[in-house]
Amino acid sequence: MRLLRRRSSLLALTLCALCAAATLAGTAEGQTTPDVRLEARAVLPALTFSPGPTSGRQLGTAPINGVTPPFEDEQPVQGFSAVLDNGDGTFLAMADNGYGTIENSADFNLRIYTIRPNFKRAFRGNGRIDVLGFFQLHDPDRRIPFAITNHFTTRRVLTGADFDIESIQRAPDGTLWIGEEFGPFVLHTDARGRVLEAPIALPDFDNPGREIRSPQNPYNEEATAIRIMNAVREHARRFGNERAAPVFSPFHVMLADADPATFVDSREAPPTGSGVARASSEVYNVASLKAAGYPIVPYTINDKPRMLQLLRLGVDGIISDRPDLLREVAQEFDANGDGRPGDLLLPDGRIDITKLDAQSHRGGRNLRPENTLPAAEVALANLMTTIEGDVGITRDGVPIMSHDPYVESQKCRRADGRPYGPADEVLIRNLTADELQSQFICDKLFRGPTQINDLAASPVTVAYRASSGLWHEYSLPTVQQLFDFVDFYVNYYRTGAGRTAPDADRLARNAEAVRFNLETKLNPRTDADENGNVYASRTVSPQDFASKLAGTIALNNMQRRADIQSFDFRTLLLVQEQFPAIRTVYLFGDFPRFIDTSVPGTDDGTNLQPQPGGTTTPWLAGLYYPYRTTVLTHPFRAQRSGGFEGMAITTDGRRLLPLLELPLVGGEAGTLLIHELDIASRSYTGGRYRYRIDPRGTAIGDFTMFSPTRGLIIERDGSQGDLNGFKAIYEVELGAPGSVVQKTLLVDLLRIQDPRRISEPGLPGDVGLGRLFAFPFTTIESVIIFDRRRIGVLNDNNFPFSVGRHVGSGRPDDNEFIILRLDRPLALARSGR
Questions:
Q1: Fewest C-beta atoms under 10 Å: which of 556, 650, 652, 799?
Q2: How far apart, in whole angstroms, are the C-alpha atoms of residue 550 and residue 518?
Q3: Per DSSP, what are the bridge partners of residue 48?
Q4: pLDDT at residue 602 above 60?
């Protein structure tokens, strides 16, 4: 492993020292301020990095407290949320989830560093912390059942979007136990971070049969899409696609819009006996997915009020059967609220695709028969930014525009006039492209009064047919013909018969830039069993779909203008591997297939519903999806960032005592719960202790035990750089299960004596240095016991966000490791010391 490096800009403290002069807040009622002294201090500069991969992509590119992300080919050594003493002068320091949220930490690898502090004391030590190396949490044995960022790799390194790790303990057998917040879960790894078993969930003892879950819990639908998208984006990056993140494209009624009326068909209340649970309409959080870097383009919206509602929600695009209505919405929308519409338009009146990707579904099927050139023409006439369409593969390997594996009799008729009904339908894969185009005309009307097939309304298609030899204007076009048609459309309005049309220039410029969103139409529910084995294929294989369609796109140098979308994620992963320059679009849909297939309104299950009798769906390429497990059946009782911030181990090494950082939803106000986990059985005993946090506090930071019943807990408020804030360590005593934990103030972390001024010098404007030393950080998350009179404390510097020490310069906090000498001995020495 190559040496870690520090950037020189913050490597050393300057020679200018400033003493803090402030009045500290008082201690808890009835308690005096302990006379605690700073014995030693060591500092790891904020800008300390370890080998990559690149990290911080979702932080943007603007400077944050003087630090500019992303961090190319390196990872910050930061955010120490827990520490273990190795007993040889070195420590294991565990970084937390990265940059604070599930949305921005998918490229932050979860690492545990070995550090050696050279503590600055009264007469020796330079105050530096050397980083000797690290190991990463990883899951090569696939113990984690849900999607993780590195799902499709062999080593499966865990990231801050997979778990928010906050506490750690070492068991007598040398294995590591880690408390985290997204579940909340307890993780078990070997001494080098290899996951040994599935994450252990916390039972909800107040509601038997349920678990305590947070809003980021991967066993709920609400927190699953972001994990799947992280996995497929990382897969794309591995094969060279760093240019464009995959697109998230859900059924629009599944977006969390605070509108319970956005249900359609029978999703909300499936028939009795169907075996399908009631659905929620508040599943996918737009703000969360966008913060994670994913464009959101829902389908299929055909009314203006709903389009406007989605635009206000913040979607990046809309797929519609009515390009005329979508154009009107784009023209009328007032995005900035100044009373003037047109905020989504370019100066020439075209739709700005960076503000709205206006996609015409199947070309605009409510205006023209779908997936035909007249449908593409009406999309272009309405200045759509993207033509969306479906693709099948013919017997001779040609990608052709078709939504169905069959030539559907509802949409198409025989060119020779012979009868053609459902019993006569033929598979696309069984005919050549020439046979399909010469034998069928797909001009039937069945989608209401707005759908027409009058060729007088499609002059460019008529002209294209005359010049290209296409069998009929309503023949199913190949993808190549669609590309050729759009080029023809440009020339038609630039130099051809349409050049004198009033809007000719704008139409030509729009068509020159128009994008394509082409879907591979597979249905593995009917074409494969639940293990993915093909048994009754109606289409070609995923590999043939990927290679034929993507190959046509590449042949036309259309990689930057054409996306490939699918409900079948197998084809998209193949595209990412073999054609990395093509952006992929992941469709999420839930039109349930009921056990009783005679129930009207059922579909084929789309891609989220598991196979009958199974627990997985072949559509999702092995990625776990908790179908219809939502807040309706599993409410979130743990608050966001309210999981296992602290976790002690009993002095006999038999039990873990994970402590929730925040009160449970619906629980006792101001009271946190300590649960008891038996290590041998890997199960919770049901024993709980009630910990009441100080009224000034907002959260706990760490929990450790030093005797069978006594330990230390850090409490804090949310302030930083405020010497009147609240940062404290309490000595606590556990009584009988169910009782309130007794607590006594041990350390006021904002009032520490430093008579030898070990903490100096500092940077200009630093706070909390000098004779009255303070630890004024937002998060203080590690406490370690050396003996009855000495403890160690570390901060989590939340790099690059927190500025608790360097208030004057505005530079991000460093990681500080201090040793404190207590004014009295702990009540009982820690076992083994």
A1: 652
A2: 10
A3: 6
A4: no
Phi, psi angles (nearest 5°) of residue 344: -95, 5
What is the residue type of 460?
A: V
What's the token pair of residue 210?
A: 């349920």
Three-state secondary structure of 342-365: CCCECCCCCECCCCCEEEEHHHCC
Return the percentage of the chain with pLDDT > 90, whole number: 85
Spell out the residues 6+ positions from residue 225 whose beta carbon is closer than 8 angstroms to its own: 248, 250, 283, 284, 289, 588
SS3 156: coil
State residue 139 phi and psi, 5-degree precision. Answer: -135, 60
Q: Given the structure tokens 């590449």, which residue do they identify? A: 554
R_g over Cα of the chain: 31
Q: Tokens 């960022």 sit at which residue?
A: 149
Angle at 692 between CA 28 and CA 33, to 5 degrees: 20
Question: Residue 411 carries which DSSP code?
Answer: T
**C-alpha to C-alpha distance for 399 and 419, rounded to whole angstroms:** 27
Residue 648 DSSP label: E
The answer to whether 79 and 797 have CB atoms below 8 angstroms apart is yes
H or E element, residue 573: helix 569-578
Mean pLDDT of 429-456: 97
Instruction: State the DSSP code for 38.
Output: E
- Helix (H) or strand (E) holding 165, with range, is strand 165-170
* Domain boundaries 5-219+634-821, corresponding CATH code: 2.115.10
Question: For residue 367, which of 354, 377, 357 has the smallest C-alpha distance?
Answer: 377
Q: Distance (Å, rounded) from C-alpha 193 to C-alpha 508?
A: 58
Torsion (CA) 558, 296, 213, 594 in degrees, nearest 10: -80
Q: Are 98 and 45 in contact (CB under 8 A)?
A: no
Domain 321-518, what fold?
TIM Barrel (3.20.20)
Comparing CA positions, the residue from 363, 385, 389, 255 lying closest to residue 317 is: 385
Secondary structure class of 722 (helix, strand, coil)? coil
Gap between the Cα atoms of 92 and 236, Å rounded: 33
Q: Give the length of the chain.
A: 833
Burial class from Cβ neighbours inside 10 Å (0-12, 13-18, 19+) for residue 815 reads buried
Q: Which tens digits make up the pLDDT trace of 6-59? A: 443 333 333 233 333 333 333 344 456 789 999 999 999 999 999 999 999 999
* Predicted TM-score (pTM) of this structure: 0.93
Q: Determine the 3-state secondary structure of 505 from DSSP.
A: helix
Average pLDDT, the chain: 92
b (16+ CB within 10 A) / e for 204-228: beeeeeebbbbbbbbbbbbbbbbbb
User: Which pLDDT does position 342 carry in this prediction?
Assistant: 95
Nearest to 401 by CA among 357, 364, 356: 364
Per-residue pLDDT band for 238 (boundaries 50, 70, 90) equals: very high
Q: Compute CA distances 715 → 43, 731, 748, 792, whole Å.
A: 22, 11, 10, 15
Using one digit for the tens of pLDDT, what is the confidence trace for 253-304?
999 999 877 875 555 667 777 778 888 999 999 999 999 999 999 999 999 9
pLDDT at 32: 67
What pLDDT score was predicted for residue 19? Answer: 32
Query: At how many degrees (to 10) do helices 459-468 and 479-494 cross?
Result: 110
* Amino acid letter, 101: T
The letter for the amino acid at 67 is V
Q: How confident is the model at residue 535 (pLDDT cuts 50, 70, 90)?
A: very low
Instruction: Answer yes or no: are the C-beta atoms of 150 and 234 closer than 8 Å.
Output: yes
Q: Where are the domains of the chain?
A: 5-219+634-821, 321-518
What pLDDT does residue 609 have? 87
The encoded tokens of residue 660 equal 């929730």
Q: Which of 41, 49, 195 is nearest to 113 (CA)?
A: 49
* C-alpha span between 586 and 229 (Å, rounded): 8
Which residues make beta-bridge pairs with 188? 177
700: which strand partners?
715
Torsion, Cα 400 406 407 408, to 10 degrees, reads: -130
